[in-house]
Structure formats: structure tokens, C-alpha cells
Design brief:
Layout (H helix, E strand, L loop, with lengths): L1 H9 L6 H4 L11 H19 L2 H10 L8
């Protein structure tokens, strides 16, 4: 899965510090922005978990175009 590659190379994939660490801010329990970023993070992880390296290779082959550089 692509998510495994990202996490191995970059570490945890987080949108904001407070999503990973609730103690980062005293307002985490009622913060609307944190709720939004938590939802965004879950969606990003869902996409990354749904893809494999082979999926990316196949996508690249489909998008292959001839590029001329002078």
C-alpha cells in the first residue's frame, strides 16, 4: 500500500499537530477546526491505503505522453 511507503519514508501522516496529539491544545475537545482536520486526515489515509505501487505504475502508463524538450 502507498500509505505504508509514505509512513516508512516520512513518518506519521498528519494534517495538524492536534490531530495526532490531543494534549497539543487545550481546546481539542470542542474545536471545530480539529474535527475538520481529523476528517480530512481520515480521508487522505483512506485514499493512500486504497492504492498500491502497482496502481501508480498503471496510472503512469495510462497517462504516458510524448514530451518534446528543446
Amino acid at each position: 500500500r502507498v500509505s505504508d511507503c509514505f509512513e516508512c519514508l516520512e513518518g506519521s501522516i498528519i494534517t495538524t499537530e492536534c490531530v495526532e496529539d490531543e494534549s497539543y491544545c487545550k481546546r481539542t475537545s470542542d474545536c471545530i477546526a480539529r474535527q475538520l482536520w481529523t476528517e480530512v486526515q481520515k480521508s487522505v489515509m483512506e485514499v493512500l491505503r486504497s492504492k498500491t505501487l502497482q496502481n501508480l505504475v498503471d496510472m503512469a502508463k495510462q497517462n504516458k505522453a510524448i514530451h518534446y524538450h528543446i
